[in-house]
Amino acid sequence: MDNFSFYNPTRIEFGSDKEKLIGQILAEHNVKNVLLAYGSERIKHDGLFVTISQSLTQHGIRYVEFGGIVSNPLLSKVREGIQAAREHQVDAVLSVGGGSVLDSAKSIAAGTLYEGDVWDLFIGKGQIHAALPVFSIMTLAATGSEMNSGAVITNDVTREKFALHSVHTFPKVSVVNPALMQTVSRDYLVYSAADIIAHSIEGYFTAAVQPKIQSRLVESVIATVLETTELLLKDPGDYNARAEFAWASTLALNGLTYAGTSGFSYPNHMIEHSLSALFNVPHGAGLSVVMPAWMKWYHSQNPAQFARFTRTLFGKETAEEGIAALETWFDKIGTPTRLSQLGITEADMPAILENLKGNTRWFGLAETYTQETLTTILKLAL
Amino acid sequence: MDNFSFYNPTRIEFGSDKEKLIGQILAEHNVKNVLLAYGSERIKHDGLFVTISQSLTQHGIRYVEFGGIVSNPLLSKVREGIQAAREHQVDAVLSVGGGSVLDSAKSIAAGTLYEGDVWDLFIGKGQIHAALPVFSIMTLAATGSEMNSGAVITNDVTREKFALHSVHTFPKVSVVNPALMQTVSRDYLVYSAADIIAHSIEGYFTAAVQPKIQSRLVESVIATVLETTELLLKDPGDYNARAEFAWASTLALNGLTYAGTSGFSYPNHMIEHSLSALFNVPHGAGLSVVMPAWMKWYHSQNPAQFARFTRTLFGKETAEEGIAALETWFDKIGTPTRLSQLGITEADMPAILENLKGNTRWFGLAETYTQETLTTILKLAL
């Protein structure tokens, strides 16, 4: 077990109707005037906006609406948000939505209190010494953003997709009400499932130091996803399954499963980023294609861990059986497992390989993931 | 899954040599003058005290020594500590030791900023509105105290053993260096194992609402304890086993495994508190006696969960087999499973039952745990 620091000061308010507490929560933190960040206008129609605005007003908190944040959120929008936050002199940012809105909210919160251009904070040119307090109400599971300090933003001009992290950008309080996630589409549910599994297995399989207790925690998360996804496909209104799915998602990305591990990498995310950058496929769909192919190529490098994975999660023996079981499960829930299902053919491989040249460098994996290796993996995914 | 709030702002600094950072950590928190609470003079001989004092001095931090805290820590000593903290106008409390020292440190930290008598905070007569910041360096695993806000203290006069909890008594930073725990005696290692298991199973078996994901987390903790305790009995110097044991211990009691559960109680701790209050037996030893007896009495009330427990942790089937396997394991590692091994006989039962009258009220279990029921359980433990 390697040395580690674990610190996660986000308070999670989990459960039904918790969004009704938002006014009280902000009042406890002495918030008087908040930037209310959100994505589409959907929240205006489904009653959530009314609930939030009433709760804020009841506690004497003013708010400035800041909508229109899109998936794969953009730097230009973050700059707009910073301008709005300064103009209206807000003293906090409230995110209502999924990870894209929350990542934007964190970036706005840090950028507002930073004198230079906010992009500095993504490229190591500036440091985050303070941020407006961030609060969130989640409407989607599997973003992880609700209980970590990271934010991923795309620079619309350079097309760079970079992240910031800081002790100041943990949400103070995140509201996770599984009932708000019941309207997520069937497709996005299964993509979320693939995403949680991908986040869970990257470290689990690649870490040079992987304590057994951490493997057990990862397996607890994955077992929960396997079970609850099927329950939710049968009955999207199954509150308890939705709740366990949401909590598994939070635990997968709040730092807990990585404590004491070291020497891990994110090859599946690396490959997937090229797919979504080039073909605009949903992140989770790209991941469910990449994972089985990567596993088929990689498993002989860590046979003991693949044996564990197979035995614990699928009750089988060999690595091949475990990988096949996962692939079959992806097929069963209806998330793609082949590039062809994403409309990608062998003719696209040169373009993917070209895009991956930059990606392997950014992920620090250029030596291991040569063009030959990547070709092998991609062919396994055709 | 029930509604819950999860909040745990303690920073864990885990790993070898982390105690050397203590001066820096306190300086980061603007501490100038700290009450250094500890137990026996052992830390003076094994080099730990020198390491700490050098690190503090290096960062210009003064300290006031406050040693002599004993197991099952006493209210009289807490009052002494409060007097010392006030007299020397310290601005923080640093605990160096196990759970007894840290529980005393938390109580001193809260009591120093409370106008009335500190016992008020244990009996609901007073509220904790503030506390001196608490820091800890752990020399023993399985107290859990390093990452929670609770403190258990025994009133030397009334022989009541009660707890305080407050958002103000979370340690700011806890240093957990498994290497510092290598000198823990064989006895205290196995008592610790019993204690972690006890903390894990109370909610697991008694909760009216027990999400499966939370059961999986609990089983991850227990499986780790079962495995690493045996490794440590063979080789006390096995750093990795010591580290996984320590982290399992932290996770068992930092609130994580209770998120989303409800309607649980602590009957094993309730009964054990009377044993240690009356006979001053080590807490873990008392628990390994109480647990199998309580389980034999209780299991028919939650057969599904006992089946899970037996299957997942011992690969067997019936509740009786699971309980027998746990009892056999306790025997194997050498922690007692019978009151007689603690020197307690049937003649002591009236005194225990009398003491439990107050305890059952304090634990809110007076209706369920009648004198008749308690007699049944105690007889199973003879």
From TrEMBL, chains A, B:
Keyword entries, A-Z: Oxidoreductase
Cellular component per GO, a single term: cytosol
Cofactors: Fe cation
InterPro entries, sorted: ADH_Fe/GldA, ADH_Fe_C, BDH-like
Name this protein carries in UniProt: NADH-dependent alcohol dehydrogenase
Gene Ontology molecular function, alphabetical: alcohol dehydrogenase (NADP+) activity; butanol dehydrogenase (NAD+) activity; metal ion binding; methylglyoxal reductase (NADPH) (acetol producing) activity
Pfam families recorded: ADH_Fe_C, Fe-ADH
Family label: Belongs to the iron-containing alcohol dehydrogenase family.
Gene3D superfamilies per UniProt: 3.40.50.1970, Dehydroquinate synthase-like - alpha domain (1.20.1090.10)
Domain Fe-containing alcohol dehydrogenase-like C-terminal span(s) in chain numbering: 190-380
Alcohol dehydrogenase iron-type/glycerol dehydrogenase GldA domain location: 9-178
